[in-house]
Amino acid sequence: MIFQDSKTLLEVHGLCATVNGIEILKGMELTVRYGEVHAIMGPNGSGKSTFSKVLAGHPSYQVTDGTVLFGGQNLLDLAPDARARAGVFLGFQYPIEIPGVANSQFLRLAYNTMQAQHGKDELDPLEFDDFVREKMKLLEMNPDFLDRSVNEGFSGGEKKRNEILQMALLAPRLAILDETDSGLDIDALRVVAGGVNQLANKDNAIILVTHYQRLLNYIKPDYVHVMESGRIIKTGGKDLAVELETRGYDWVSAENKAGAVVPA
Amino acid sequence: MSTVLQNLVNQPYKHGFVTDIESDVAPKGLNEDTIRLISTKKNEPEWLLEFRLKAYQKWLTMEEPVWPNVHYPKIDFQAISYYSAPKPKKTLASMDEVDPELLKTFEKLGVPMNERAKLAGVAVDVIFDSVSVATTYKAKLAEVGIIFCSISEAVHQHPDLIKQYLGSVVPVGDNYYAALNSAVFTDGSFCYIPKGVKCPMDLSTYFRINTQESGQFERTLIVAEAGASVSYLEGCTAPKFDTNQLHAAVVELVALDNADIKYSTVQNWYAGDEKGVGGIYNFVTKRGLCKGVSSRISWTQVETGSAITWKYPSCVLRGDNSVGEFYSVALTNHYQQADTGTKMMHIGKNTRSTIVSKGISAGHSNNSYRGLVRIAPSATGARNHSQCDSMLIGDQCGANTFPYIQVSNPGAQVEHEASTSKIGEDQLFYFAQRGIGAEEAISMIINGFCKDVFQQLPMEFAVEATKLLGLKLEGSVG
To answer: Which of B131, B257, B282, B287 is most open to solvent, judged by the fewest CB atoms within 10 Å of its CB?
Structure first.
């Protein structure tokens, strides 16, 4: 939701990044204020996922130019774990499996790391168990999840729920959800989107990276951005997503090439 | 390999110091005279000298094994000193009489010897460069008839037991290193649990190699009479030296009817530096004989040290319904090489064995599992389950599995499972994205990976093992 006089949370300016020497991001511009929900859409290969990973500090990507300010702090100076502790959360498109590590153990370590960061008390295993079970209800998750290895043998839908559960536990200031809708059936999509909606408030912001409009039926974005060739070429309100769904991406691209003004 | 991964494995060896104690060192080289010297120094009876000389004659006819998947320059057995003992003083009645230098060494190592040992309820038979210095809790154990002393002492005090069992599980000519050990062993531990006695505490021995270039050849013998049970802990550290040190121990276990022996090892000898210079050659023969019906022998090992490890703690399941177990974590880093595993020889009816092996390779190391499951024609109803998992950290290391399965009884059930996984950049990034640093992440992944083995360790050993793995990998990610 757009709030009057809301402070800027994220400011991306002229961001360029490469992977294996190939330039993927070519001058990203984006400003996100507290309380807002932004959707970044675009065809495959436009750089959407790269943008998410670069913000989170994935080691395979090299930033070659530009700045990223997060809450006024230079985000690019921070190691990936420090970015997470500063409040940047990435919901993975393909959550990683960690055999042998119990989900409960992993979630508790992540939660306590964040608590320590904020100078708050850490929870022991029993306290945490009560706490996490409460959060799991939000996502209609079976408590069995806690005993299984992190993401190992999880279905696509279970993995995505587990991501949003982590978002609920860590309460990030900025949640970047990378293709959270991919691999979800309609029921799972409803539950996951419902979870995200409950977590959204005036003290955080959400960037939804998505290929399809259908997620946006459940989570209403304040802004919709279209990416092509490593930068944003069009920005609009939620109606833009609907238009993209019916007309595809080509017209935006054509409009852009024809020299239409790129909105700031 | 990411720089994160590269830096985690570079923790200098913390136990690198030399205790300044006068040592009584034999001249280098091996011949019959050396063996006679050892035997004389130890004031041994004639039959033991004969045992040694027989082993030596066997050894002369044998060849160093070349089949392990390890590589090292040829060992010059004539360049090794085969005997080294702290200057003998009188036999010690209490800890107060122990050389303060020695005590300081143990302090540096964090060995729970006096107060800590008592608090932990552990009796420590301390081996220091091959000669037992002090044995605690002996009196308490003696109350229930348990003998726990050095092999040298047992040779004099309990010659019949030693004569009966020494070399009964690992014959003098069993293999090259066992023959060498049988010829030149200097000391070790002897443990005898009489009929029906459950040992009231975990028995523990700390081994430590101290004199540079003195090969250490311990000999351990544990006998559990019918219905007896014992848990034995072996833990090791060694000071830092640049030249390689040979270590060829022999451990023999004998379990009679319904007896139960649990043997746990945490091995952290000097592994060489990050370039692969120095470190211990650990060529060990460990074997248990389930001689009686329904007996059980369980080996648990956490191997993190040594430049080269060549070790196959085995079970000969002769008694009907006997059980053999092998739980192993082997971690190699830098240029360490390990070729380790087990042998389960099923002879009796309805014998069962379980093998769980976890190999972790980091740096430029090479880690091989080698295991034999043999079901003899007589072993009707025998069952085995083996699980061998390997984990790779980084992309410069290697992991191999060499399972040998020989089944000569059609009714036997043998299962083998194996897996290989890798701690990848993506896993570490996933942890990082949840605020968790690389070292903590690796420690969590490794502990999860080794869980099935750590569960088998006695409590305080499990804690030590968990810390040790963390320590060994510290600095390899950063």
So the answer is: B257
Residue with tokens 């530096």: B273
Instruction: Please state, as a whole number, how many other Cβ atoms lie within 10 Å of the Cβ of residue B418.
Output: 13
| B434 to A113: CB separation less than 8 angstroms, yes or no | yes
User: Is A19 near chain B, with CB under 8 Å?
Assistant: no
B435–A105 CB contact, under 8 Å: no
CA distance A169 to chain B (A): 10
Q: B11-48: buried (b, 16+ CB within 10 Å) or exposed (e) per residue?
A: eebebeeebeeebebbeeebeeebbeebbebbebeeeb
How confident is the model at residue B477, as a pLDDT?
52
A58-71 pLDDT per residue, tens:
999 999 999 999 99
Q: Do B2 and A59 lie within an 8 Å CB cutoff?
A: yes
Does residue B267 lie within any of the structural domains? yes
Q: What is the ipTM of this complex?
A: 0.95
Comparing B258 with B464, the larger pLDDT belongs to B258
The CATH superfamily label for domain A8-94+174-257 reads P-loop containing nucleotide triphosphate hydrolases (3.40.50.300)
Q: How far are the Cα atoms of A35, A173, B215, B423 from residue A176, in angstroms, in the given order?
A: 14, 10, 60, 25
pLDDT of B459 strictly over 80: no
Measuring CA to CA, how many Å separate A164 from each of A95, A198, B74, B286, B290? 11, 11, 58, 51, 53
Name which of B422, B433, B439 to mutate to probe chain A: the one with the most chain A Cβ atoms within 10 A of its Cβ: B433
Confidence band, pLDDT 50/70/90 cuts, at residue B110: low
* Cα–Cα dist B231/B233, whole Å: 7
Q: Please answer yes or no on whether B435 and A81 come within 8 Å at the CB atom.
A: yes
What is the rounded distance in angstroms from the CA atom of residue A151 to the CA atom of residue A146?
10
In angstroms, how far is CA B63 from the centroid of its own chain? 23
Report B:409-428 residues touching A (Cβ under 8 A): 421, 425-427
- Asked whether the beta carbons of B300 and B456 are under 8 A apart, the reply is yes
Half-sphere exposure of B116 (CA within 13 A, CB side): 11
The pLDDT of residue B58 is: 96
Please report whether residue B113 resides in a domain: no
Residue B100 lies in a domain: no
Query: Nearest chain B Cα to A91, which residue?
Result: B433
B434 with A149: Cβ contact below 8 A: no
Domain that holds residue B351: 3-84+121-472
Residue B435 resides in a domain: yes
What is the mean predicted confidence (pLDDT) over B436-459?
88
Q: Does A61 touch chain B (CB under 8 A)?
A: no
